[in-house]
TrEMBL record:
Residues 15-403 form the Major facilitator superfamily (MFS) profile domain. It comes from the Bacteria. Keywords: Membrane, Transmembrane, Transmembrane helix. The keyword Transmembrane applies. Signal peptide: none annotated. Gene3D superfamilies: MFS general substrate transporter like domains. This is MFS transporter.
Length: 403
């Protein structure tokens, strides 16, 4: 069956897993830094608060790139945009691999963030090609790709950095991105114009007007702002905990290597197994109800981190709980947007993702700053405050709009 624009109603069999693999390769780049942050601090001779600028500006640049570039996905070919963005990412990781100074590393990481569009173009692309009853499952596949990328990035970076130096991981990332830039466009349909409608592309909006059109669209759909704010807080919790863990576990007091951080991160890969089934659960019980439920689980995970103290293997329990709660919180948040009119989904997703990464950027710097001031205990406190705020907002959205 075809849509009014000649697009397939359903993706070919097996296409979603392949998209998930490509998304994993692209998403991994933001997470290589977590286990190796302690090694970079010592090599470049900077303090914890300063090194926090690397992930912080990466996330802020990502939010800026999403704001300025992602809306073009409602007008131009997602296929072309994905190819260009991944190619720029390959250049950025090469700069990071060759960096001999903190400013050069910061430049590469910031450029990398700005060009990270593919994981956020793909949900809108896919949502136009699956039936609404399969939206949760399809979104969960792509989120599983992100989870796999997070797991791969954090899982391989520590051992590789210990064996070959921290720059080696960014050389590997460059090669993987080049392969992805060649392969992913071959799996994407060329025809992808959205149907005309509310704010649709047939309006032929200029670039500035396209950006300005986000305001009226959001006023008609204010939940996009709320869902983005909730995800920004939840994602901030994730970054705050894992960046501080990279500093805490490799500190002189505990003396673990970066590989231990990676091994702990691998345990959070349980999300690979749970996210698809939990996506179907969100289809059944409702996105807002699922999000509120799993934000409660996130609070339990933070309490477990606090209870674990310095016992690294006791941290496995909250790591697993975070691996379960984080991805499905994101899936359910996206579902509140991706069920709306197809021709405005990319712009609504722009709002959601900008708020998500703005929150992540602020939390990245706040976490390393808090660690500098009060160590691991201060960082866990910051995470608990962020998670509590997300839970309150999610509960309010459930009361306001229902399941």
């Amino acid at each position: 069956m075809a849509t009014g624009q000649g697009l397939p109603q359903d993706l070919p069999p097996g296409r979603l897993p392949l998209y998930a693999v490509a998304v994993a390769v692209v998403a991994a780049n933001a997470y290589y830094f977590h286990p190796i942050i302690g090694l970079v601090v010592r090599d470049l001779q900077v303090d914890a608060a300063t090194i926090g600028l690397v992930p912080a500006l990466n996330q802020v640049a990502l939010a800026l790139g999403i704001l300025l570039l992602l809306p073009l996905g409602d007008r131009f070919s997602n296929r072309t945009m994905v190819t260009a963005a991944i190619s720029v990412q390959a250049l950025a990781t090469l700069i990071m691999a060759l960096a001999e100074s903190f400013p050069m590393l910061l430049l590469g990481s910031t450029l990398l963030g700005f060009a990270t569009l593919a994981p956020y173009l793909m949900p809108a692309y896919v949502s136009k090609r699956v039936e609404k009853r399969r939206l949760g499952q399809a979104t969960a596949w792509l989120t599983t790709g992100v989870v796999a990328g997070v797991l791969f990035g954090r899982g391989i970076a520590g051992p590789m950095a210990e064996a070959f130096g921290w720059r080696s991981i960014f050389f590997v990332a460059t090669g993987l991105l080049l392969l992805c830039a060649i392969g992913l466009p071959r799996l994407m349909e060329r025809g992808e114009r959205s149907p005309a409608g509310e704010g649709g592309v047939r309006e032929r909006l200029g670039y500035l007007n396209l950006l300005l059109s986000i305001g009226p669209i959001v006023r008609r759909h204010p939940e996009a702002l709320l869902s983005g704010a909730i995800q920004g807080l939840s994602f901030g919790v994730f970054l705050a905990l894992w960046l501080a863990l990279g500093l805490h576990l490799t500190s002189p007091r505990l003396g673990h290597g970066a590989d231990v951080v990676s091994y702990l991160a691998i345990l959070s890969g349980v999300g690979l197994l749970t996210t698809p089934s939990l996506g179907r659960l969100a289809d059944r019980i409702g996105a807002r109800r699922a999000r509120t439920l799993f934000l409660c689980l996130q609070m339990v995970a933070i309490g477990s981190f606090a209870a674990a103290g310095d016992a690294v293997w006791w941290m496995a329990v909250p790591a697993v709980l975070m691996g379960i709660s984080g991805p499905i919180t994101d899936v359910s948040g996206r579902m509140t947007i991706l069920g709306l009119a197809p021709e405005i989904r990319t712009r609504l997703m722009t709002v959601y993702v900008v708020l998500m990464f703005a929150g992540g950027g602020i939390a990245s710097w706040l976490s390393t700053f808090a660690y500098d001031l009060g160590g691991w205990t201060a960082n866990v406190t910051v995470a608990a405050l962020l998670s509590g705020a997300a839970l309150v907002l999610s509960a309010w959205s459930l009361w306001r709009w229902g399941r």
